[in-house]
Amino acid sequence: MSDQKRLFLVDAYALIFRGYYAFIKNPRINSKGEDTSAIMGFMNSLLDVIKRERPDHLAVCFDKGGSADRVEMYEAYKANRDETPEGIKTAVPHIHNILKAMHIPIIEKEGYEADDIIGTLSRQAETEGYKVFMVTPDKDFAQLVTDNIFMYKPVFGGGYETWGIPEVQKKFEVEKPEQVIDFLGMMGDSSDNIPGLPGVGEKTAKKFINQFGSMEGLLANTDQLKGKMKEKVEANGELGMLSKELARIMLDVPVSFDAKDFELDHPDIDKVKEIFQELEFRRLTENFIKTFNGNGEATPATAKTNTTENKPTPKKPQSAGAGQFSLFGGDSNDTVEETNQFTRKTAETTSHFYQSVASGMATKLFIKNLLNQSSVCFDTETTSINPLEAELVGIAFSWEAGKGFYVPFPENKDEAQSLIEEFRPFFESENIEKIGQNLKYDIKVLAKYNIDVRGKLFDTMLAHYLINPDMRHNMDVLAKTYLNYTPISITELIGKKGKNQLSMREVPIDKQTEYAVEDADITLQLKEHFEKELGEANTQKLFNDIEIPLLRVLASMELEGINLDKEFLGSLSEQLNNDIVNLEKSIYDAAGEEFNIASPKQLGIILFEKMKLVDKPKKTKTGQYSTAEDVLSYLAKDHEIIKNILDYRGLSKLKSTYVDALPEQVNPQTHRVHTDYMQTVAATGRLSSNNPNLQNIPIRTERGRQVRKAFVPRNEDYTLLAADYSQIELRIIAALSEEETMIEAFKNGEDIHASTASKVFNVPLTEVTREQRSNAKTVNFGIIYGVSAFGLSNQTNLTRSESKELIDTYYATYPKLRDYIQDQVDFARDNGYVQTVLGRRRYLKDINSRNAVVRGAAERNAVNAPIQGSAADIIKIAMIRIHEKLQEGHFKSKMLLQVHDELVFDIFKPELEEMKNLIKSEMENAYKLKVPLDVELDIGDNWLEAH
Question: Model-level pTM?
Answer without folding.
Answer: 0.67
